[in-house]
Design a protein that fits this description.
Blueprint (H helix, E strand, L loop, with lengths): L3 E3 L9 E7 L4 H16 L4 E7 L2 H17 L3 E6 L1 H14 L3 E5 L5 H5 L6 H7 L3 E6 L2 E3 L2 E3 L2 E5 H16 L3 H12 L6 E7 L2 E7 L1 E5 L2 H6 L13 E6 L4 H12 L10 E5 L1 E6 L6 E6 L2 E6 L2 E5 L4 E6 H8 L1
Helix pairs in contact: 1-5, 2-3, 6-7
Protein name: DAGKc domain-containing protein
Pfam family, one: DAGK_cat
Organism: Pseudomarimonas salicorniae
């Protein structure tokens, strides 16, 4: 299975768009974005229902409500926001086997940029006027899909710290970089893990494990394993315990796009991997999924989802992916 599968080239215009929009901070700005989406789609003859939300329980309730309406009315479930919002909406669409569309609006937008989607909200909404369906590979951990990556350990803590910094200092890539350096300079506990794959079982100590499903993010690190995604695999990254100086050098090489497998870090392709804490007292783990943090019961079962995501892509984006 490839990471993107074609299901034909003829447009399949939806009957209705059901949008869950991350309102972010600022009621007036959120209202302007909502009106922009409704106007761009309405002027082109589409019916559109937008629900602005601010995360947490409100986000979950809005996704459930919009998902049920989309299912009843043969519509499309749409996420408007960063990778975390897109993941939550896409997970519901995947669960209901609904077509999904994205209006990316986050800081990094790895999912949208990887697919060539416009980060300008007006342009992205206009692009939905002419879409085609493509089957997009997604990863799973314990049945929960991820679009970009899922992680435990150090990288998960980096994501958690980054969100705290963003709430205090605003959303920007400089704030994210500052938060990352702050995380690296702290003490990091090692995780004793039992890993099971097609090659058998082994016990390893790691600082972090990341399962990647985004070619753009992996390529930016300089990982040659990014090609594994086109072969229907995920990319795993393991960092063993190491001195801070080695960890900083590894981070700098990654930022420069010059990753090399070594004793300080290994990247590899896999289809399915089970991770279980060695300690019997640790029966759950915090997992970072596309920037959001969830607690999951162990063992963690990572795999390529057997069912791709039904993604509606602007025609020009789909044509580029098909080449």
């Amino acid at each position: 299975m490839s990471s993107v599968e074609s299901t034909g080239s003829s447009p399949s215009p939806p009957r209705r768009w059901f949008v869950v929009m991350n309102a972010g901070s600022g009621r007036h700005a959120a209202r302007r974005r909502q009106q922009l989406i409704e106007t761009m789609l309405g002027e082109r003859g589409h019916s559109c229902r937008v629900l602005p939300v601010r995360g947490g329980r409100q986000l979950a309730e809005a996704i459930d409500q919009q998902g049920r309406l989309a299912l009843d009315e043969d519509g499309v479930l749409v996420g408007a926001g960063g990778d975390g919002t897109l993941n939550a909406v896409a997970a519901r669409a995947h669960e209901l086997d609904l077509p999904f569309a994205a209006l990316p609006q986050g800081t990094f937008n790895f999912f949208g940029r990887n697919l060539g989607l416009s980060e300008d909200l007006a342009d992205a909404a206009v692009d939905l006027h002419d879409v085609v369906e493509r089957r997009i590979q997604v990863g799973e951990v314990n049945g929960r899909i991820f679009l970009v990556n899922a992680s435990i350990g150090l990288y998960r803590r980096l994501l958690q710290d980054r969100e705290q910094f963003k709430r205090r200092y605003g959303r920007s890539r400089w704030v994210a970089l500052w938060a990352g350096l702050n995380t690296l300079f702290r003490w990091h506990p090692r995780l004793g893990l039992r890993l099971v794959d097609r090659d058998g079982a082994r016990v390893e100590d790691v600082l972090t494990f990341i399962a990647g499903n985004n070619r753009l993010q992996l390529a930016q690190l300089g990982l040659p394993n990014a090609d594994c995604l086109a072969q229907g695999l995920l990319v795993g990254i393991k960092l063993p315990p190491q001195p801070l100086a080695d960890l900083l050098r590894l981070a700098l090489r990654g930022l420069a796009g010059r990753w090399e497998n070594s004793e300080n870090g290994v990247a590899f392709g896999f289809h399915e991997l089970v991770i279980d804490p060695v300690s019997r007292r640790r029966r759950s783990l915090r997992v970072g999924i596309d920037g959001e943090i969830l607690r999951m019961a162990a063992p963690l079962h990572f795999r390529v989802s057997p069912r791709p995501l039904r993604m509606l892509l602007p025609r020009q984006c789909a044509e580029k992916l098909d080449r």
